[in-house]
Amino acid sequence: MSVPVTPHSPYFATAPQITPTEVADFAAMGFRTLINNRPDREGGDAQALNADIEREARAWGLTYHFLPVVAGELTEEQAEAMAQLLLDSPKPILAFCRSGTRSTYLYHYALAVTPEAE
User: Fold this and answer.
1) Most C-beta atoms within 10 A of its C-beta, which of 40, 74, 78, 107?
2) Is-contact 38 98, C-beta < 8 A?
3) How confident is the model over 77-86, as pLDDT tens digits?
4) What is the mean pLDDT of residues 27-43?
């Protein structure tokens, strides 16, 4: 697998954009939830679509959420939504976006508004 995973806690990690064919690798690594923080087509036609990744994730028995965030436009509502996903989703969780940075910021913002989401 060529996608680097950055752990932030025993229960949460981030990665750059993934493809449907890489979902099996993440399931094998033990992730139980995937969170997609990248809007569809942000990277043009070459970017894997949310629906395709979600279909593969569910086929592997993973919980899947789509919480798209436009780069540089993170809102408190999105942080609150992320905090709720962190609280409610099976762990460990992998969140991804274009480079992993946006998902990292969203994670830390979510913990700032809801510290118990750790």
Assistant:
1) 107
2) yes
3) 999 999 999 9
4) 95
Cα(19)–Cα(4) distance, integer angstroms: 13
Q: Kindly state the tokens that stand for 66.
A: 């789509």
pTM: predicted TM-score of the whole model, two decimal places: 0.96
| 11 Cβ contact partners less than 8 Å away, ≥ 6 residues apart | 91, 92, 93, 118
Integer Cα distance of 80 and 6 in angstroms: 22
Provide the β-strand partners of residue 93. 12, 33
- Residue 106 tokens read as 């969203």
- As a whole number of angstroms, the distance between CA 67 and CA 36 comes to 6
Residue type, 95: A
d(CA 49, CA 77): 24
Closest CA to 64 of 39, 28, 93: 93
Residue-wise pLDDT for 8-19, tens only, equals 999 999 999 999
Phi, psi values for residue 104, rounded to 5°: -65, -50
